[in-house]
């Protein structure tokens, strides 16, 4: 890239930086961007740059592959029902150890190495995430449904100049520990913080008219159109819970919710600071 092109990129980004400065943006991080070290470095540098230009960034993460690895290592089989992990007492102990420990602290360290200030938190801290047992046709064990979000510890972290890095372990009202869906947790946190944006990073371009054609991306969706898109079969399968999380966030007061392809390097910056934008935006 020559000097003039670089200057044009910076000039193009300036009004977006001004627009987002002082706003809160919640990023849910997972998928391939979490497994690939090169992509991980790109995401962490994006997060740090956002903080440096004055955005209040909250990073919410999952860690399914790491949990699977640790369960395999201990000789315990991973079991799923309707896309949800069956979580018995032994499994929830491993989930808590992996998410709130190894994965969370690794992300904090990556942010620090990229020049940012981060603090590792989980839903148990300050009773941030309170949950009840998720009731389904089949017993899933310690899988929870978020009942309440207390954002105080997140707000205090932001006020003191830290990027909160949150693992999605929730507390029960009788001392239980629950595994909760990271997308939903991010949406609920964004709503409680009155965030400007929610960004869900995933492994697809966004919502596609044809799942076999990545060029069939639907760039903008109104929440009032979601029901029609479900009936027509465009929103289906694993995209349903992600879209529902976005709708939940928007209905809770978040201005915009975005589904971005985490396989694209610097996808967050491309969405926030360029004219083109990528992925699917719900409003």
Question: Which key features would you list for this structure?
Answer:
283 residues; alpha/beta; eight-stranded mixed sheet; two-stranded antiparallel ribbon; 14 strands
Q: Any overview of this molecule?
A:
- The structure is a single chain.
- The chain is of the alpha/beta class.
- It contains ten helices and 14 strands.
- The chain has helices at residues 3-20, 32-35, 37-52, 64-73, 89-113, 152-159, 182-192, 226-231, 239-251, 267-273, and strands at residues 24-29, 56-61, 80-81, 84-85, 118-122, 129-133, 144-149, 163-167, 169-171, 177-179, 197-202, 220-221, 256-261, 280-282.
- An eight-stranded mixed sheet has the order 5-8-2-1-11-13-14-12, sandwiched between helices.
- The longest helix has 25 residues, at 89-113.
- The model has no long low-confidence stretch (mean pLDDT 88).
What's a quick, concise take on this entry?
With 283 residues, the chain is of the alpha/beta class. 42% of the residues lie in helices and 21% in strands. The strands form four sheets. The chain has an eight-stranded mixed β-sheet with strand order 5-8-2-1-11-13-14-12, sandwiched between helices. Strands 3-4 form a two-stranded antiparallel ribbon.
| Rg computed from alpha carbons, rounded to a whole number of angstroms | 19 Å
Give the low-pLDDT segments: none
Mean pLDDT: 88
Subunit organisation of the chains? single chain
**Portion in helices:** 40-55%
The main pleated sheet reads as: 8 strands, mixed
């Amino acid at each position: 890239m020559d000097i003039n092109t670089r200057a044009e990129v910076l000039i193009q980004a300036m009004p977006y930086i001004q627009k987002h400065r002082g706003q809160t943006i919640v990023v849910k991080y997972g998928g391939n961007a979490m497994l690939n070290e090169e992509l991980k470095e790109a995401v962490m540098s994006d997060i740090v740059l956002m903080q440096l230009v004055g955005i209040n960034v909250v990073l919410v993460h999952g860690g399914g592959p790491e949990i699977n690895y640790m369960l395999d290592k201990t000789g315990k089989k991973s079991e799923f029902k309707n896309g949800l992990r069956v979580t018995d007492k032994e499994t929830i102990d491993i989930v808590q150890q992996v998410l709130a420990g190894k994965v969370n602290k690794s992300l904090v360290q990556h942010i620090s190495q990229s020049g940012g200030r981060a603090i590792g938190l989980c839903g148990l801290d300050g009773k941030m995430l309170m949950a009840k047992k998720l009731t389904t046709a089949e017993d899933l064990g310690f899988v929870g449904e978020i009942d309440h979000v207390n954002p105080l510890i997140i707000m205090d972290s932001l006020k003191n100049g830290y990027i909160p890095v949150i693992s999605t372990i929730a507390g029960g009202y009788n001392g239980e520990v629950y595994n909760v869906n990271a997308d939903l947790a991010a949406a609920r946190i964004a709503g409680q913080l009155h965030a400007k944006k929610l960004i869900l990073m995933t492994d697809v371009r966004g919502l596609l008219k044809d799942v076999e054609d990545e060029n069939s991306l639907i760039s903008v969706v109104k929440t009032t159109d979601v029901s029609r898109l479900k009936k027509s079969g465009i929103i289906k399968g694993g995209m349903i819970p992600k879209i529902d999380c976005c709708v939940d966030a928007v209905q809770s007061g978040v201005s915009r919710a975005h589904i971005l392809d985490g396989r694209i390097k610097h996808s967050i910056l491309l969405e926030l600071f360029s004219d083109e934008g990528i992925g699917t935006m719900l409003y």
